[in-house]
């Protein structure tokens, strides 16, 4: 997966005054992803997050990277040390950075040809997007393949 770049000044403001950033990220990921991720270890240095552990799926790994990256103060995330079951090349996910004026319906229309498929995007990003009407520019989301 390599490093994913994020805009350091955008995202959820998770870090309190003088807190342990790695600990805060780990707590948030454990809360959001629960038993889908185990043996999670997080390091944070100079805006760079490194994640390691075991994920139950590629989708969980992608969500962990996006959750960590969509935090204000994070500029890069590496999930290279997050283990997953094998993934077929055809099942790889596309990532999209939300632009000003975007809606989930508009993104669904672009990628799926049907604006009414926006619930697919919302469900695939439920941990990152809490309300389908509240997305913000520079937020990175997953665009999964439609089930056949």
Task: Give a description of the structure.
With 148 residues, the protein is an alpha+beta fold. The chain folds into two domains: 3-83, Alpha-Beta Plaits (2-Layer Sandwich), CATH 3.30.70; 93-143, LysM domain (Membrane-bound Lytic Murein Transglycosylase D, Chain A). The chain is 28% helix and 24% strand. The chain contains four helices and six strands, in the order E-H-E-E-H-E-E-H-H-E. Strands 1-4-3-2 form a four-stranded mixed β-sheet, with helices on one face. It has a two-stranded antiparallel sheet with strand order 5-6. A hairpin with a 2-residue loop joins strand 2 (37-45) and strand 3.
Please tell me the total number of domains: 2
Q: Provide the CATH top-level class of the largest domain.
A: Alpha Beta
Q: How large, in whole angstroms, is the Cα Rg?
A: 15 Å
Helix amount, in percent? 25-40%
The rounded distance between the terminal residues' Cα atoms is: 25 Å
Secondary-structure-based class equals alpha+beta
Mean pLDDT: 87
Strand order of the largest sheet: 1-4-3-2
Q: Which residue ranges are poorly predicted, with pLDDT under 50 across at least 5 consecutive positions?
A: none
If classified by CATH, what would the architecture of the largest domain be?
2-Layer Sandwich
Per the principal axes of the C-alpha atoms, what is the gross shape? globular
Biggest sheet: strands, sense, closure? 4 strands, mixed
């Amino acid at each position: 997966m390599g490093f994913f770049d994020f805009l350091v000044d955008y995202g959820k403001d998770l870090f309190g005054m003088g807190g342990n950033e790695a600990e805060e990220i780990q707590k948030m990921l454990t809360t959001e992803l629960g038993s889908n991720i185990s043996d999670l270890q997080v390091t944070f240095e100079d805006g760079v997050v490194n994640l390691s552990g075991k994920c139950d799926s590629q989708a969980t790994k992608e969500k962990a990277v996006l959750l960590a990256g969509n935090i204000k103060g994070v500029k890069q995330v590496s999930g290279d040390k997050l283990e997953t079951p094998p993934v077929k090349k055809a099942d790889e996910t596309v990532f999209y950075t939300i632009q000003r004026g975007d809606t989930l319906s508009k993104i669904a229309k672009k990628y799926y040809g049907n604006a009414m498929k926006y619930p697919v995007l919302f469900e695939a990003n439920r941990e990152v997007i809490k309300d389908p009407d509240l997305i913000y520019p520079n937020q990175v989301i997953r665009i999964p393949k439609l089930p056949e």
